[in-house]
Write a structure and sequence with these properties.
Radius of gyration: 17 Å
Strand order of the largest sheet: 1-5-4
Number of strands: 5
Helix content: 55-70%
Strand content: 15-25%
Number of helices: 4
Order of helices and strands: EEEEEHHHH
Structural class: alpha+beta
């Protein structure tokens, strides 16, 4: 049985409005189901927009140094799990592992740059 994922909105995981799940299948191996993804509904998108709008004032009022620290911690979290993330990316989209490793590394570089 594959993992059932949940939506993350407003700092909380939830099932979303729809009970329908969509299988996320490895395009290189149709028997490899990575997980079951909840089907989004318009009200889920609306909740996400509202949550983002509510979060914006806090992010805007943070100092540049505080925002940089947040981005830097995010980059470090990705860097610490880079091989795991690359393997899962390769599985999910069916790309070569070397290309997936490059994308993960590029993500870390971009986050550090903006930090």
């Amino acid at each position: 049985m594959s993992t059932v994922l949940r939506s993350y909105v407003g700092g909380e995981f939830g099932a979303g409005s729809s009970a329908r799940l969509i299988p996320d299948v490895n395009p290189s191996d149709a028997s490899d189901v990575l997980g079951q993804v909840p089907e989004g509904a318009p009200e889920d998108a609306e909740r996400a927009v509202v949550a983002a709008a509510e979060a914006l004032p806090r992010w805007r009022s943070a100092t540049g140094a505080a925002r940089a620290e947040c981005l830097y911690r995010w980059a470090e979290a990705i860097h610490a799990r880079r091989e795991e993330l690359a393997r899962e990316m390769a599985r999910e989209v069916g790309k070569p592992i070397g290309e997936a490793r490059g994308e993960v590394a590029r993500c870390v570089v971009i986050l550090r740059y903006y930090a």
